[in-house]
Automatic annotation (TrEMBL):
Name the UniProt record assigns to this protein: MurR/RpiR family transcriptional regulator
A Pfam family that the UniProt record links to this protein: HTH_6
Domain HTH rpiR-type: 5-81
Protein's GO biological process: carbohydrate derivative metabolic process
Organism: Streptomyces ficellus
UniProt-recorded Gene Ontology molecular function terms: carbohydrate derivative binding; DNA binding; DNA-binding transcription factor activity
Matching Gene3D superfamilies: Glucose-6-phosphate isomerase like protein, domain 1, Winged helix-like DNA-binding domain superfamily/Winged helix DNA-binding domain
InterPro entries assigned: Homeodomain-like_sf (IPR009057), HTH_RpiR (IPR000281), RpiR-like (IPR047640), SIS_dom_sf (IPR046348), WH-like_DNA-bd_sf (IPR036388)
């Protein structure tokens, strides 16, 4: 695991049962890891969109006497100055700021991938499951659909689960009966209750759950055997998901490494596509 400020913060939060409000605070701290040791409790509360007493309760939940003790600890383990903004950053308009926010999310993802172990493990799990159900509802449906589209080029049996309702558990049951051992889930805010319920059901049915979520503290975490975080952008009216999309492609690469015939399948598809004139040059 990278020894970045974000990684050290995540290690601090691991093993604690956090409420949804506390998970929001933790997520905000990870995203602003370089600045957090220098923020007051009021500033952190504003950053996370919670009340100041919630920040105090969060610090106590982590085992500190209060927020000052937590901030003192953070300054000791990460005694760096806050990162300086880019030249002219204050002159950026809201659209540029949203793009810069996504670039920062991608940098954070790159730091997490300094330890490739979790992604490599996830790739092996996905490659081993026949069939492989891929779940994503509402905001995450496009992530699941994109992954399933490309995964089907190399994996013999990918089953997209992008519609909720009473049929969802039926389709999970069908995948288990067909031999599935792993379910891949893309979970993005706002997190639908039926996704949380579906993951709980999948684990009870014996599936190993691999989840790509916006935070290690997302509501789906407690129902995931392996959670891979990738932050979403919040600078626009609707969240942006560049980092989760890229993490999905990284997972595809890791899955291909676990499928010995992946390259042969890709070449077979290319040959068939050329003979059918499927794409224009």
């Amino acid at each position: 695991m990278s020894d970045s400020p974000a990684a050290r913060l995540q290690a601090l939060f691991e093993g604690h049962r956090l409420t949804p409000t506390q998970r929001r605070i933790a997520h905000s701290m990870v995203r602003r890891a370089g600045d957090v040791p220098f923020l007051s409790s009021v500033e952190l509360a504003e950053l996370a969109g919670v009340s100041q007493p919630s920040v105090t309760r969060f610090a106590v939940a982590l085992g500190f006497d209060g927020y000052p003790a937590l901030r003192k600890h953070l300054r000791e383990v990460a005694p760096a100055e806050p990162a300086a903004g880019a030249p002219g950053e204050s002159s950026y308009n809201e659209y540029q700021q949203a793009v810069l926010g996504e670039i920062e999310n991608l940098r954070h993802l790159a730091e997490l991938l300094a330890d490739p172990g979790p992604v490599e493990r996830a790739g092996r799990l996905l490659a081993s499951s026949r069939p492989l159900p891929v779940l994503g509802l509402r905001a995450a449906s496009s992530q699941a659909r994109g992954f399933a589209y490309f995964a089907a080029k190399v994996h013999p049996d990918v089953r997209l689960l992008d519609e909720g309702g009473t049929m969802l558990t039926d389709r999970v049951d069908a995948a288990v009966r067909a031999g599935a051992t792993v379910l891949l889930c893309f979970a993005l805010p706002r997190h639908p209750r039926e996704v949380v319920d579906a993951l709980a059901y999948a684990r009870d049915a014996g599936l190993t759950v691999v989840t790509v979520a916006d935070s290690a503290f997302a509501p789906v975490a407690k129902h995931s055997d392996l959670l891979l975080p990738a932050a979403v952008g919040t600078g626009l009216a609707f969240d942006t998901a560049c980092a989760p999309m890229l993490l999905g492609r990284v997972l595809l690469e890791a899955m291909c490494d676990g499928l010995p015939d992946a390259q042969a399948r890709l070449e077979e598809f290319d040959t068939a596509a050329a003979s059918r004139g499927l794409f224009v040059e």
